[in-house]
């Protein structure tokens, strides 16, 4: 198959492409953690007329066609839905994505002094190339809870006047042995320590004067005691905003596009639906995908099914669990996750006949997994055919893509967990260069294609 350049297909929509991408740039810059992303989306949801699920649960709001409802689940997962004309048991049109991204988390007891310098210990989250995280300006984002129960919102390193942090690397003059190591061993996991200070405290008799001085700064400027780190979730992420890339500004570069590029387009497409859909449309944005979708905010948790159950309970009294099972099994879903784009700098890791390219539209991936498709749901041909028909009728450019050549590697998405309920699921997202790096790159036209394709899916799936 020869896929067209999406810029040609959308030649008359350049202004709309820019508008969508400027909105996305703001989200990508302001939502560098799951909590920040959820807070951003909740603000937009309220402004767009969505009401919290709690109002449905306590009977203040009736579940009728056109109702816009959302759930902020533990500040790490976000679900938004527009109730359709058909009963919920007829199935939902779901676009599922994830809000978490590979990063560095501070350990519960992170602060120490070595060689009269202050450091913070980290534990990496998700699949990273550790060597990519050294010699970069990094920022700290997260929350801290004090012994008294006070919640502290922490963002250090994003404003021009803020300090930043960094992980040091070895100079090439002394790196002969380091350069002989495998890439996975060039920087060790325990070597990913943030440099945070060097001025000693005034007490010359103190054992660790720099550490003591840093503890004083943490207390006076941020209200943080040493034990508060055990009650904290602090993430080290690349400092600075997401940026336009290229002389023609055709690309978006930034941290966390896997998978916030699909999460935001799934949300924006739902928000911008102009009419009540025939079937209930849902943007399902979860946490923990990068570490196996575990935990109570990951796709394997029950919070999504619980929300559907609450909506059914409000719509169909008395509640019957069989209606929930029917609703999930009859649903149609896109697992909106990113795909690898062909990179001419790295030949041989993809099958060029079955790989995605930047600028050719939304990527349809029938199966993910590794080796013999291990860990995938492998969408049925009937459902793939219907989704491609929806895209074609809406003039949405699409392409096919696999996550690498056979036996080279691979990976999974939330699709297999969604499929466990019996619903039809197809992986469908945006292609990236430099995936899982501190600066991932996507095409503006592919982002717009995702936005348009997801809108068409919300409207037409099930018909």
TrEMBL record:
A Pfam family per the record: Peptidase_M18
Keyword annotations of the record: Aminopeptidase, Hydrolase, Metal-binding, Metalloprotease, Protease, Zinc
Organism per entry: Carboxydocella sporoproducens DSM 16521
InterPro entries (UniProt xref): Peptidase_M18, Peptidase_M18_dom2
Name under which the protein is recorded: M18 family aminopeptidase
Family: Belongs to the peptidase M18 family.
Annotated Gene Ontology cellular component terms: cytoplasm
GO terms assigned for molecular function: aminopeptidase activity; metallopeptidase activity; zinc ion binding
